[in-house]
Amino acid sequence: MFSQLGVPPPSVLPPGATLDQIIQAVHQHNAQIQSYVTQSATLSGPGWPTLHASIAFQRPRNFRLRAGLSLGGTEMDLGSNNQLFWYWLRRDQPPTVYFCRHDQFSASRIRQALPLDPYWLIEALGTADFDPALPHEGPYPAAGGRLEIRTIRETPEGPAVKITRVDASTALVMEQHVFDAQGRPLANAVIEGYRRDPLSGLYMPSAVQISCPLAQFSMRVDLGNVQVNRAGAVSAELWSMPTYPGSPRMDLGQAGR
Length: 257
Known about the structure:
Layout: H1 19-30, E1 35-45, E2 48-58, E3 62-69, E4 73-80, E5 84-89, E6 97-101, H2 110-113, H3 119-127, E7 136-142, E8 146-155, E9 158-167, E10 173-179, E11 185-196, E12 203-212, E13 217-222, E14 227-228, E15 249-251
Parallel strand pairs: 6-15
Antiparallel strand pairs: 1-2, 1-13, 1-14, 2-3, 3-4, 4-5, 5-6, 7-8, 8-9, 9-10, 10-11, 11-12, 12-13
């Protein structure tokens, strides 16, 4: 489960850990990850070639993932800042920079095609936490020496459920599963293992399997050599919505209103 590179994660949970102890342990580790960057990530999935990617994150909502073929330029650009998120795919017909404000997403028409908050992708790659404003249930025993916590979130369609499974010893998040109000699976993230960042001493996923069953989409993200909390490692320009020649912008929060 854990990479042979570096020190294995310590045991932080006692046997029979309570819900509060688990939530506190997850928060104590993940809240220390204020930023990270990797230039050696790869994306792979059924029916498309492996893409080389750079990924950067900075709290609270700054995120950027750019991926492409080794000699073919950028194929995909996903990003977020504190106001909005965007995505661009070179092979869209026509290629378009789609964007939406975070505060308009829940009421936008794009939510019918993309029912999941884009912030979920950020959490899936290693910064998941438990919102203190939401109700949590558990822990329940799960396979593989894991503990399961269920979080209820109210949506316009009714209560949705997020299942988080953590290692019963280290409290590292190993799985996240999101279900809509009808119980249909919206998204899954399964972490294959962790690597320790030598300078910060914090642990980041080595690879994550991500799937969105309703969209019939899945991919594996290998994060490569992730650097955590490096001052000056990321530029503020990363958090600006990009411009691509020949690709107009479309506001998904306003489209169809």
